[in-house]
UniProtKB/TrEMBL annotation:
Protein name listed in UniProt: serine--tRNA ligase
Ranges of biased composition (kind: Basic and acidic residues): 150-163
Catalytic activity, EC: 6.1.1.11
EC class (word): ligase
Region called Disordered, residue ranges: 131-163
Domain Aminoacyl-transfer RNA synthetases class-II family profile: 1-114
Keyword Nucleotide-binding: yes
Pfam families listed in its UniProt record: tRNA-synt_2b
Family label: Belongs to the class-II aminoacyl-tRNA synthetase family. Type-1 seryl-tRNA synthetase subfamily.
Gene Ontology annotations of biological process type: seryl-tRNA aminoacylation
Protein keywords: Aminoacyl-tRNA synthetase, ATP-binding, Ligase, Nucleotide-binding
Keyword Magnesium: no
Naturally occurring in which organism (per UniProt): Ixodes ricinus
Length: 163
């Protein structure tokens, strides 16, 4: 069932045309609840990086012990009861999915709506949605943007300069 859950998330991304990868999280990075965890990461071209969209965890009986969710014989029957094992998955982190769609379906003139979403869009937006104003590439750099850029440039400099 765990594989089916991550498979559903993969199918979701495929239908939306979002490039993705599935990453198995190493045991040292897991929290106390998860015994196994896979993340589905989408490609974000603007930052040139994969970012998490979906997280799928097998928590074994960690959560059910705290919630007292059991199955089997009742205590009155003097038999041992077992705790259920629980799975957890995020199917759609809406804001991140929208960002992934916009970045991956962007063209020079606007955004192409993924085929799977077109039936749910108003007729005027089933075709590429045009940008309403030009990209801010020609705008003057703000003080905050300059400070960020300078910080990134310093970060990229070698730690020690050889003479």
């Amino acid at each position: 069932m765990f594989d089916e859950m991550i498979g559903n998330a993969e199918e979701f991304c495929q239908k939306l045309g979002i490039p993705y990868r599935v990453v198995s999280i190493v045991s040292g990075a897991l929290n106390n609840a998860a015994a196994k965890k896979h993340d589905l990461e989408a490609w974000f071209p603007a930052s040139g990086a994969f970012r998490e969209l979906v997280s799928c965890s097998n928590c074994l009986d960690y959560q059910s012990r705290r919630l007292l969710i059991r199955y089997g014989q009742t205590k009155k029957m003097n038999a041992q009861t077992e705790y259920v094992h629980m799975l957890n998955a995020t199917m759609c982190a809406v804001t991140r999915v929208i960002c992934a769609i916009l970045e991956n379906h962007q063209t020079e003139t606007g955004v192409v709506v993924p085929e799977a979403l077109r039936p749910f869009m108003p007729p005027a937006f089933r075709e590429p949605i045009p940008f309403v104003k030009p990209a801010p590439v020609d705008e003057a750099e703000t003080k905050k943007q300059r400070k960020h850029r300078e910080g990134m440039e310093k970060k990229d400099e070698p730690a020690s300069k050889e003479q």
